[in-house]
What we know:
Layout: H1 2-16, H2 18-29, H3 31-49, H4 58-68, E1 75-76, E2 84-87, E3 90-93, E4 107-108, E5 117-118, E6 136-137, H5 138-152, E7 159-162, H6 167-181, H7 183-189, E8 203-207, H8 223-231, E9 237-241, H9 246-249, E10 254-260, H10 263-272, H11 276-282, E11 284-285
Amino acid sequence: MKKVILVIAGSLVILSGCQQAQEWTQNLFGEKQSEETKDTEENSSSEMNESPEVTPGEEDEGEVAEEETVPPELQLESQFFNQVKVVDGKQVIQNPANKLVLVNKEFALGEYKPEDLVRPEVPFVFGNEDLEKAHLREEAAKALEQMFAAAKSKQIYLTAISGYRSYDYQEMLLNREIEQFGKEKAVMAVAPPGQSEHQSGLAMDISSQSNDFQVNIEFAQTKEGKWLAANAHKYGFILRYPEDKVDITQYQYEPWHFRYVGKDAAKVIYENDWSLEEYFKNVKEI
């Protein structure tokens, strides 16, 4: 019978509040029971307020252990992240020479021009003409030569279409695209001046004779396009605007546009099926 009464008392704590229930139990069991309950509550409160004992250095060790769970390939030095300054409402990159520079509709290069532009020894669609777009930054140019040579050894014949583009040239391209197709379509296909990867000197459009040297969706189905998609990362290049990443990159699918990021980053991006934007969301700055 006593157990039944205790259950009822407990119910009153929930329904009527702690103070009313305590007064009711005092009348029922006497003053002694009330004091025992009070002692129990005080001991419980004391135990709850006590901090668990922590061995000096134990918390720090836990933090270090958590940091160590980040694999080395997802740890990236701070110098490879964009350093930006807002200029006229745009986030302008202050370290544009960084080979991992993230250039898109959010981050701009301003009027930056690379200082180490060279012409890679690869076939160009315009032959030996001395054009601006026949250049890349030196490291990217050497990697492009290696990639073209590797493809050729497999009877895959690639042709370079367009590399570096200046701010002014990109502006001309965008205006021409707007005149032909309207602004909405133009901005999905052509980057605004200052926001094109081509201006970084790290991107190259590539095609092939089998595709009539065109830069189009059909290139993805050629043996050259398939080889590039499967092997470019081995030479430090990534397919910059994949078909299933349009919502992330904000650019249409471009199976011809390859961007140099170096072998380490390219391998991680390829194996995880990431865009460059997703890569920077997943790497940890160190």
